[in-house]
Design a protein that fits this description.
- With about 120 residues, the protein is an alpha+beta fold.
- It has a single domain, classed as Gcn5-related N-acetyltransferase (GNAT) (Aminopeptidase), CATH 3.40.630.
- It is built from three helices and six strands, in the order αβββαβαββ.
- The chain has helices at about 5-15, 60-75, 90-95; strands at about 20, 25-35, 40-50, 80-85, 105, 115-120.
- A six-stranded mixed beta sheet has the order 1-2-3-4-6-5, with helices on both faces.
- The termini are far apart.
- The relative contact order is 0.15.
- The chain binds coenzyme A.
- Coenzyme A (COA) binds near residues 60, 61, 93 and 96.
Length: about 120
């Protein structure tokens, strides 16, 4: 994941993120995102992950729904997330949540293609 996990994102976006814990307080999943400064109607998901032991139980979808609800309170009408073309699980997850979007060549630099997923809020 490289710089995607830079502590900058945890320090600066953490308070606005979504954090889900088990009943005993141990982490189950988190989402770091922001309301875009360049497109104020856009909620942007930077990173999200669910504990491998808890996948397939709706935690990831809950992260997105809660983040979307909060972003709507700040005026957002749509939500965007990126996926690398080889990350089949992430692509399937976003499609299952109703996201769609183009594969953009070199989106993050030479050889770093990304699918730029987007959908309207709320996420049902
Ligand atoms: C992607 C990820 C967050 C999904 O979390 P999750 O809690 O397992 O997802 P959910 O259980 O909420 O699934 C929501 C929907 O996505 C689908 N889905 C999730 N992961 C999938 C996979 N690997 N393959 C196919 N479909 C998948 C589910 O079937 C479900 O569809 P449904 O509503 O039609 O039943 C999780 O697999 C993960 O943490 N992956 C590693 C980190 C990552 O890739 N993050 C994204 C890039 S930052």
């Amino acid at each position: 994941m490289g710089l995607t996990l830079h502590r900058l994102f945890f320090d600066q976006l953490g308070p606005g993120g979504v954090w889900i814990a088990r009943a005993d307080g141990s982490p189950a999943g988190f989402l770091l995102g922001m309301v875009s400064l360049s497109e104020p109607d856009l909620a942007y998901v930077h990173l999200h992950a669910v504990d491998p032991a808890l996948r397939g139980q709706g935690v990831g979808a809950t992260l997105y729904r809660w983040f979307g609800e909060r972003a709507m309170e700040k005026g957002c009408t749509r939500i965007r997330a990126l996926a690398a073309p080889h990350r089949e699980g992430s692509i399937a997850f976003h499609r299952a949540l109703g996201f769609d979007g183009p594969l953009v060549a070199d989106y993050l630099g030479a050889g770093e293609d990304r699918i730029v997923f987007e959908r309207a809020l709320p996420i049902p």
